[in-house]
Design a protein that fits this description.
Chain lengths: 112, 115
């Protein structure tokens, strides 16, 4: 089946630093979504991307839909302690009833 | 934004018990989903529904069952819980949006522990 690769599993950064995460696949996707999950909560949608090459921002977050349609990246600028959490990418291929495929997530830690 | 609620948030039960995890959404979404999540792993789809009286099994085999009698309600049932069922269960619903730009909204999850 389709798989999304997110690595490394964990990232540790200093408050104020920028961080970039990427998500890759061997399959083509037509939608990329980025979610953040806080401890004990469900994932919350951060950014949705629908076109190859699309670059979308949400506050300090910026995500891009790769030209090849096989990857996407998420950038967080000027990190703050509340950015701590697990960041999941998810992709959907063509088809009216195609379902989302999720990556394993990257756990982000921010040192004050 | 979708309002989607799961109860209970935490459940600790003994082996062999029957349990039902509740999920309700108030936005009138037709599509609803159940995912299973273990630490450090991706979300695995175990059940989904595209409307009332429609239920399908997901990519990950599960001994649980679901029902969809009302649009807003999508409960998940385990007839006889086992320690291997210990996991986080996440319910979601989706808003198709314009041009089929479907987005998935999640509940807070139920952390199930079977002793």
């Amino acid at each position: 089946g389709q798989q999304l690769n997110q690595s490394p599993q964990s990232m540790f950064i200093q408050e104020g630093e920028d961080v970039s995460m990427n998500c890759t696949s061997s399959s083509i996707f037509n939608t990329w979504l980025w979610y953040k999950q806080d401890p004990g909560e469900g994932p919350v949608l951060l950014i949705a991307l629908y076109k190859a090459g699309e670059l979308t921002s949400n506050g300090r977050l910026t995500a891009q839909f790769g030209i090849t349609r096989k990857d996407s990246f998420l950038n967080i600028s000027a990190s703050i302690p509340s950015d701590v959490g697990i960041y999941f990418c998810a992709g959907r291929s063509l088809g009216a009833n195609s379902k989302l495929t999720f990556g394993k997530g990257i756990t982000l830690s921010v040192r004050p | 934004e979708a309002d989607i609620y799961q109860t209970p948030r935490y459940l600790v039960i003994g082996t062999g018990k029957k349990i039902t995890l509740e999920c309700s959404q108030t936005m009138g979404h037709d599509k609803m989903y159940w995912y299973q999540q273990d630490p450090g792993m991706e979300l695995h789809l175990i059940h989904y529904s595209y409307g009332v009286n429609s239920t399908e099994k997901g990519d990950l085999s599960s001994e649980s069952t679901v029902s969809r009698i009302r649009t807003e309600h999508f409960p998940l049932t385990l007839e006889s819980a086992r320690p291997s069922h210990t996991s986080q269960y996440l319910c979601a619903s989706s808003d198709p949006g314009r041009d089929l730009t479907e987005k998935l909204f999640f509940g807070s999850g139920t952390q199930l522990s079977v002793l």
